[in-house]
Amino acid sequence: MIGAGPAGLCAAIAARDMGARVTCVDSGDRPGGQLVKQTHKFFGSRAEFAGKRGIDIAGMLADRIRDDPMVEFMLDSTVIGFYDDGAIGIEHNDALTFLRGERIVCATGASERMLAFPGNDLPGVYGAGAVQTLMNVYGVRPGKAVLMVGAGNIGLIVSYQLLQAGVEVVAVVEAMPQVGGYDVHARKIQRVGVPILTSHTVKAVHGTRVVEGATVVALGSDFRPIPATEEYFHVDTVCLAVGLTPLADLLWQAGCKMAYVPELGGHVALRGEDYETSRRGIYVAGDLAGIEEASSAMIEGTIAGLSAAQSLGHEAPDFEERLATARAELAALRSGPKGQKVRLGIERLMRLGREVGVVA
Ligand SMILES: Cc1cc2nc3c(=O)[nH]c(=O)nc-3n(C[C@H](O)[C@H](O)[C@H](O)COP(=O)(O)OP(=O)(O)OC[C@H]3O[C@@H](n4cnc5c(N)ncnc54)[C@H](O)[C@@H]3O)c2cc1C
Question: With CB atoms 3.0 to 4.6 Å apart as the test, which of 9, 86, 113, 318 could cross-link to 61 if both were Cys?
Answer without folding.
Answer: 9
